[in-house]
Each structure stands twice: as structure tokens, then as C-alpha cells.
Amino acid sequence: MPERELSIQYRNPARRIAVAVGLVSLPFWAFFGPATLGLVIAGIATGLSPFSMGVAAVACFLLLAIICGGMMTMAFSEDNRILVSSEGLTFPMMMSLRLRWKRNRVWSELLKVDVFTDDRGCVNRLVLTFRDGSVLPLRVASVEAAALEQFLVAIELWAPEAERSIALSDFQSKLQNRSVGLDSLSYTKIWEEELGRRFSATTFVPLEPDRLLQSGKYKIVRQIAFGGFSAVYLAQRNDLDMVILKQAVLPPETDEKVRSAAEHHLRRESEILSRLDHPGIVKIFDFFVEEGNYYLVMEHVSGQDLRQLVKQHGAQAPGRVLEWAEQIATTLEFLHSQTPPIVHRDASPDNIVIANDGTVRLIDFGASTEFVTNATGTIIGKQAYTAPEQLRGKACGQSDIYALGATMYFCLTGTDPLALSASHPRQVIQELSQPLDELVSACTAFELADRVPTMAIVKTRLHELQDKPQAVKVRGA
Fold first, then answer.
1. How many angstroms separate the first and last alpha carbons of the chain?
2. What is the pLDDT of residue 218?
3. What is the pLDDT of residue 409?
4. What angle do CA 135, 137, 143 make, to 5 degrees?
5. Cβ neighbourhood burial of 292 (10 Å; 0-12, 13-18, 19+)
6. How far apart are CA 129 and CA 432, in angstroms?
7. Which strands make up the sheet holding 110-117, listed edge to edge?
8. Residue ranges per domain, the chain?
9. Would you state the pLDDT for residue 317?
10. Which of these, 17, 162, 418, 453, is most buried using a 10 Å CB contact count?
11. Which residues of the chain have pLDDT under 50?
């Protein structure tokens, strides 16, 4: 299972005061205190002490209190990190009192997450409530914005049962927008600008939280992603389990005949995908049309997608990338073996999830992306992971091989590959082995004739590479 641990520095003003006090008093509790205590004990032991036994005992007690107090002050003030992993949370010692002296918490203990605002309406506290009744308010200003965003993502991924307020979802959305430079724009404005770059003006705007669909069967919890003419939401089904809802829409000026054909394509694909049964593929539950919008309902997988993981932890170890790639190749080989063959069309880092149990899952088959592409004649997608023939509207099994190779490059280097070109991760990370670099290059060859022909061959080569060292010593290193 991949290591997924986040260390968050918590800058507490009280900690700075404690550090200052501990440092100022350092000579007393670290040097003079122990030395004086040693002299008093030696005097008692030799019978040469000028004080009575009662006075000496009190002096020993006070000196021990000073020494222990100084040590505890420094220990509490030095521990200022919140550790987050798939198992749970570990808080600094300074928070022990509020946590009823239980600093280590598993995710199932987290009952509720909320935010508090100041008089100006700005969020200043993130409040965690646990099942034993303990409440821990965290100062937002004490955590860097990027770390706070990762912390909220971790809570969403690993504590899905915890109650999340609407105010928290709004705050998280603002954090995510700010991280990509969109904090000054409203959702509506973002959509208008995005769509204006791609097409003519449209009335398509994302759904708001608590919006009900299919007569209340689905309730929107929050928006996860958007782009072009599609959006992805976390939704609740029948007030019980969580699902992923993918929305697609056509421009209002789309010809009715084109609209009908595209809808038929999407409905047919959803029916095919719903019949698939494979541990590496998310399940498709439903397809419906409402108010001119088209929706796919998919299984919600608790975990972290590869883009999030690499963003948090950087380039991944070659051995781990090979294990992931072999699992992905196995799933894609299963899809390609169907009658007719199913091409995923978007096996990119955003659509590959490392589930909490360590398995690799493929999500978002790009059905709605292909749907909009067919209807408008415009390609929507991540071009760095899209094969040349797919951009020409002729996706095939080797297109998924190209995407897999590009995804391996991203995991190995921490950066997106150059679009429409063979990728060589060794140009970025020289320590990588030549055979690994050659495999990634062969998977991302521009021409089909130069690319690895089948996913079965890719899987075999991945398996063979796992038995060999994938890092070499760089000359002069």
C-alpha cells in the first residue's frame, strides 16, 4: 500500500510564548537546577548538608519541579505538527487537554467538521468534533493554505461518514479556487470565461449544493471538478450512500439531430459500462436526462487520485509506479477484450484512484467528453495524455497505451509530459533505468506503428521490469 502521510505545521502563538519562556529559563532548569539538586542530594547522603532533612526534601521537590517543568514546556512547544494518514490523525501534545488526553485518533472517531467565522464573515476556525464529545478548534491562520487544502481533502477521502457543513464545503471550494488563482471569481464567472474560450455564450452553470435531481433521488453535496461542457459532483443517493454524478450539456444552438445522436451514444455507452464487473473499474449505476442535461451516476471510491498524490508527495519511486501501471494495464486489457472492445479514452492521473485499500481503480470513462466531442466537433480533454489519433477522432486500444505511458511519466517525474510527443522520463530523472525509459517512450510513440501494439505486451514488460533495479547510479553523483 502506498505511503500517504501528511505532516501539517501548526503555528500556535501560545507555542511561541512557551518556547521563549523555555529558552529564557534554560540555564535554570537545564544547568543550575540539576547541579543544585546534585549538591543537595550529595549533602544528604554524606551528612554534610547544612539544612535539616525536611528543608532538604522540600528543596529537592522544588528543584525537580523546575527541571520537569522546563523539560515539559520545551517538549510541548516543540511538538507542533499534525500528522495525517489513511489510518487517522495524530495531534501535537499542546492539544492534549482539549482532546481529553487522546492525541491519536482514527478516522471513525471524527463525528463532525465545521468552520466558524469572525465578525467580518471570514473563516477563522476549523472545528473538529469527535464521538467522545471532545471539540478541537484549529486556527485557520496557523496553517498554510496549501496544507489546509490537503488536510480538508484528507478528511473528505478518509472520513466520509463525518458530517460536513455547507459552510465548510464553501470554504473548501474557495481554498481550491485560490490555489489556482481564481479566488476573486465567482463560480458563474469562472464558467462564463471557460466556456467563452471554447464556444459561444451558453447558459450552462454548475449545480449548487443541496440541488435535488430525479425527484429527490440524488442530492448534490458539492462540486468536485468542471471543464468545458461537463461537471463532476459528489452526490447523495436516496439520503444514504455517496455517488459521483457527472453532468454533460450541449450548447443550446446544437442541431436536434446531432443532439439525439449524441444522447444515443451516451446512453448506449452507459448501458455497456454498467454491465462490466472488474475490481479495477468503478461501477456505473445510472444514466438519466433532466432539464436538457445528461447525467452519469458512478460509484464513489474513497481514495486519492494520482494527481493529488503526486502533487502532495512529488515524483514516485519506480517500483511503486510499475506496480500501479501493471494494475492499470490489467484493467485496460480487460476493457480491450470486450466485444466490441471498450477504449477508456482518458486513463490520465486525474482518473486513476489509489483506493484506501491500496488497489488502483479507473474512473470516468470519458463518455460525456466523447459525447460533447461528437456533438460539437471540438476535442475536450487533457491533451498531454491524449494520443494523436484520438485527437483526430480515431481512438483505439493503443490510445489507452499512450495515456498509460504518459501517466507513468507523470508519476516518475512529478510533471505533465509534453503533448503529442514520445516521453522520456530519464531526461528529467537521470537515475531512472534505460529499460524503464524505453518502455515509457514506446508507449507514447507518436505513430501507431512505433507504439507498443497491445496492452497484454505492456503488462508483460511491466512485470519483467519489476524484477530488475529501476534506478542507476548517475556518474559523478
1. 30
2. 95
3. 97
4. 145
5. exposed
6. 46
7. 135-139, 123-130, 110-117, 163-164
8. 6-78, 81-179, 194-299, 303-465
9. 93
10. 162
11. 1-4, 179-203, 367-381, 474-477
The set of long-range contacts for 175-180, using a CB threshold of 8 Å and a minimum separation of 24, is 175/145, 175/148, 175/149, 176/149, 178/145, 179/145, 179/146, 179/149
Architecture of domain 81-179: Roll (2.30)
Which one, of 310, 9, 2, lies nearest residue 147 by Cα?
Answer: 9
Q: Phi-psi region for residue 396, left (φ > 0), alpha (ψ -120 to 50) or beta?
A: beta
Per-residue confidence (pLDDT) for residue 47, from 0 to 100: 64
> Rounded distance, CA 316 to CA 314, Å?
6
163-164 vs 110-117, strand pairing mode: parallel
Distance of CA 260 to the CA centre of its chain: 37
Query: For residue 449, what pLDDT is reported?
Result: 95
Question: Which residue, among 365, 182, 178, 168, has the nearest Cα to 278 in the 3D structure?
Answer: 365
pLDDT digits (tens, 9 = 90+) for 191-249: 344 334 433 334 467 888 889 999 999 999 888 776 656 788 889 999 888 898 988 87
- Name the amino acid, one letter, at 411: C
Identify the pLDDT of residue 396.
Answer: 92
CATH class of 303-465: mainly alpha
Rounded (5°) CA angle 192-196-197: 125
**Is residue 101 within 8 Å of residue 155, measured between CB atoms?**
no
- What integer pLDDT is reported at residue 229 of this predicted model? 67
d(CA 208, CA 166): 11
Q: Are strands 88-90 and 104-106 parallel, antiparallel or unpaired?
A: antiparallel
Query: How far is Cα 152 from Cα 105, in angstroms, rounded to an integer?
Result: 16
Alpha carbons 87 and 158: distance in angstroms, whole number: 8
CATH topology of domain 194-299: Phosphorylase Kinase; domain 1 (3.30.200)
Count CB neighbours of 183 within 10 A.
12
Residue with cell 508519476: 411
